[in-house]
Amino acid sequence: MNKNDILTIYGTDPEEMAKKIAEEANLAGLIGDRNKLIGLKPNLVVARPASGGATTHPEIAAGLIDYLKSNGFKNIVILEGSWVGDSTARAFSACGYSGFEKQGIKLIDTQKDSTRVMDCKGEKIEICSSALSIDFMINLPVLKGHCQTLLTCALKNNKGLISDREKRRFHSLGLHVPIAHLNTVIKNDFILVDGICGDLDFEEGGNPVFGGRLFAARDPVLCDTFAAELMAYKPEDIPYIGLAEKLGVGKSGPYVLRELNKNSDAPPSPKPGGKAQKLSTFINEDSACSACYASLIHALSRIGMGKAQGRFQKKICIGQGFKSKKGNTGIGNCTSGFANSCKGCPPTAMEVLEFLNM
Questions:
Q1: Domains of the chain, with CATH numbers?
Q2: Beta strand pairing call for 144-146 and 150-152
Q3: How far apart, in whole angstroms, are the C-alpha atoms of residue 195 and residue 193?
Q4: Using CA atoms in the order 315, 150, 87, 59, what is the torsion angle rounded to 10 degrees?
């Protein structure tokens, strides 16, 4: 897997998807020495199951652990620190990670870890000692929105590897600058993003949007650039992406998208809840694939309920049920026969947003 590759796989079985994407990436080859200490860093910001859109599916970790063990790697830990006010130990249990201890996988609660002050290219940051001891870090963020930074993915997920005291300071600094500097020291050797059902716009979950995909990258800046597009943002809308690039953390592009299967291979999208359900009133869906449907929901969210009510008197069509049919406005290649159709299988949310704003 090259540094500018984005590997994507669609489906609803995160464990098998994780194994397949690890094989395609030749993760074992990237790690090399079987004696290296490998760290898995999920997003367990709160003690809530992944179905709510806030936390990383444990099946993804399970798939990677199975792959790593089958390739001779045994020195594996999972490390995380929930947000200030919640308990990491409780999150490990509620999110389905406690069972990994029976497999010999150590769970490290970074809220209880010792720390070291590191010079992160001009910004002194208190980083958890366990994170600094990792030889190969596998970042497992959730693709989701954030109430302050709009997006949280690879770069921001590493905020779980600093002390609670430092987390409070990050917020006082506005998050973007310290997040960028943190990633000059914290490793991002391999990134596997949980895009199964991330929250629409809040890191705590509650408005999951079913995307039905995982995607992998080796460059966190490139990863977050792609993630921003999937949520209908430009990289410049998320300042820490550009700041991290200027600090030499990675490059924002161009990327090469490599799809392991077709979006149409995934089953139709589950019905959304909360805010996403309200946005679905503007959609005429017939057997839509999860990733395509998620792009439309994210684009409509950027437009907003008020403007959408005034602009979309006729519903926007999406799904495999519209193949070879005619209509007014459609999303995805399945609606190629429509008068106005946004191409892609699936299109990104940014492409859908630009299409709807034409």
A1: 5-261 (3.40.50.11440), 267-356 (no CATH)
A2: antiparallel
A3: 6
A4: 60
Distance of CA 165 to the CA centre of its chain: 25
Tell me how far apart the alpha carbons of residues 43 and 55 are, in angstroms, rounded to a whole number.
5
pLDDT band at 288 (very low <50, low <70, confident <90, very high): confident
pLDDT at residue 322 in the model: 94
Task: Express the helix, strand and coil content of the chain in percent, nearest 5 each.
Answer: 40, 20, 40
Q: pLDDT tens digits, residue range 292-338?
A: 988 999 999 999 988 988 888 899 999 989 999 999 999 999 999 99
Buried b / exposed e over 279-305, threshold 16 CB at 10 Å, is: bbebbbbeebbbbbbbbbbbbbbbbee
What SS3 state is found at 204?
A: coil
How far apart (Å, rounded) are the C-alpha atoms in residues 254 and 103? 40
For residue range 16-59, list pLDDT tens digits in order: 999 999 999 999 999 999 999 999 999 999 999 999 999 999 99
Q: Tell me what the mean pLDDT of segment 260-277 comes to.
A: 70
Two tokens at 94? 């509620």
Angle (CA) 106 87 17, round 5°: 55
Q: Please write the tens of the pLDDT for every residue from 94-130.
A: 999 999 999 999 999 999 999 999 999 999 999 999 9
Closest residue by Cα to residue 282 from 321, 307, 309: 309
Query: What count of other Cβ atoms lies within 10 Å of the Cβ of residue 99?
Result: 12
- The residue behind tokens 């098998």 is 16
